[in-house]
Specification:
globular, binds manganese (II) ion, 11 helices, eight-stranded mixed beta sheet, SH3 type barrels, single chain, alpha+beta
């Protein structure tokens, strides 16, 4: 499959990708777009120009500041919409490429648009599905000989997070303050977090699920998944440590989480499927699944200093998940909980086996005992004021097509 658009070989946005997002310009209000190479396709313009005929989408669905209306139409229509855009960009399809004045209207340089929050997220759930991450945290905070809690290999453990503070890439976040207990012999104090961390995660966005009281099986799950984003689940470790027993994370997590602006569809990731780990002990029947439900997406994290010096501190991969998305969605709904269109279900921190692949500073600096040296010679145990954290993700299909996510960036402001 080749496009008539010139796409750089290292672009995340190949013709095989076609992710969805929301963009605006100085003259155009926020609307639905797809990325291709270094351009954005304006889907409102395509609709107005008649290129989206015979598809179940109205102009209002595309002239909209969130993807929720198109996500609400379900898997089939979204698949048809993406296929249509992909077809119009193929070099063997003359329809759009031959009409220069239409091309000028419907394709804009990515560098000239502002990316917006892609989805109005109703509910956000955060899993804890990477075994190495759960082991690392268990070893540091509990018992190195029993790092995993007894339930961990029997269910995808999760908590209900906060949707209101999920922000799009490029949105700065202020260092949170709260209760800390730096000296375990003394009472807690109030103050700015000293142990501010990132969590390298990916999240998936759901189509509308089933009514309350019904369940979604692992076999049905992928029909309810629209696509994936990069996700930085910022964490204040000192606030988290003091507050989390017995009901789990609260203020240590709810001050902000950052998502990438482009949602890569599950269809686009099909060529990146890989087998998951052998699950032992055997899971309960409702968590069994068929086929390859894991995905090979290489992930990277950079810390960028206020002076602009970037250092890659982690290289991980989405395939390091113990529990896959089918199992997460089946578990989430097994008690009858409904999911709605635009819900966000995140993976939990994704850590691989070796130190270079850990997905948080907590693990990389091993609770602050191993400071990380950055390219400018400075060191970090956690994230400093003015630092930016940039996460990237990309998979390459057997045909050599890059299916990438772009990046998610966030800067921490002083309290
Ligand atoms: Mn998390």
């Amino acid at each position: 499959m080749k496009s008539w658009i010139d796409i750089a070989p290292d672009s995340d946005f190949s013709l095989a990708n076609i992710p969805f997002g929301i963009f605006k310009t100085e003259v155009n209000t926020a609307r639905v777009g797809c990325a291709i190479g270094d351009r954005v396709v304006d889907l409102k313009a395509l609709h107005v120009l008649g290129y989206l005929e015979n598809l179940p989408f109205e102009l209002a669905d595309l002239d909209c500041a969130s993807l929720n209306p198109i996500i609400a139409r379900g898997k089939g229509p979204c698949r048809e919409l993406r296929s249509r855009v992909q077809k119009l960009l193929r070099s063997d399809v003359p329809d759009l490429q031959r009409k220069e004045h239409h091309v000028a209207q419907a394709l804009l340089p990515l560098a000239e648009v502002t990316m917006c929050m892609p989805v109005e997220i109703g509910d956000y759930t955060d899993f804890y599905s990477s075994e190495q991450h759960a082991r690392n945290v268990g070893m540091m905070f509990r018992d190195p000989d029993n790092a995993l809690l007894p339930n961990w290999k029997h269910m995808p453990v999760a908590y209900h997070g906060r949707a209101s503070s999920v922000v799009v890439s490029g949105t700065p976040l202020r260092r949170p303050a709260g209760q800390l207990r730096p000296d375990p012999e003394q009472p807690p104090i109030y103050g700015a977090s000293r142990l501010l961390d990132f969590e390298l995660e990916m999240g998936f966005i759901t189509h509308p699920g089933k009514p309350l009281g019904e369940t979604i099986s692992t076999a049905e799950a992928e029909a309810f998944i629209f696509g994936l984003v990069l996700f930085n689940d910022w964490s204040a470790r000192d606030i988290q440590k003091w507050e989390y027993v017995p009901l789990g994370p609260f203020l240590g997590k709810n001050f902000g989480s950052s998502i990438s602006p482009w949602v890569v569809t599950l269809d686009a990731l099909n060529g990146l499927r890989v087998p998951g780990p052998n699950q032992d002990p055997k899971v309960l029947p409702y968590l069994e699944y068929e086929g390859n439900g894991h995905y090979n997406v290489a992930l990277e994290v950079d810390i960028v200093t206020p002076e602009g010096v970037a250092t890659t501190v982690s290289r991980s991969n989405l395939r390091h998940m113990y529990w896959n998305m089918q199992q997460q969605l089946a578990h989430h709904t097994v008690g009858g909980c409904n999911v709605r269109g635009g819900d966000l279900l995140a993976s939990g921190t994704i850590s691989g086996d070796d130190e270079g692949s850990y997905g948080s500073m907590l693990e990389i600096s091993w609770r602050g005992t191993k400071p990380v040296e950055l390219a400018d010679g400075s060191t970090r145990k956690f994230i400093a004021d003015g630092d930016s954290v940039v996460m990237r993700g990309c998979g390459v299909s057997a045909e050599g097509e890059r299916i990438g996510f772009g990046e998610v960036e966030g800067t921490i402001l002083a309290h």
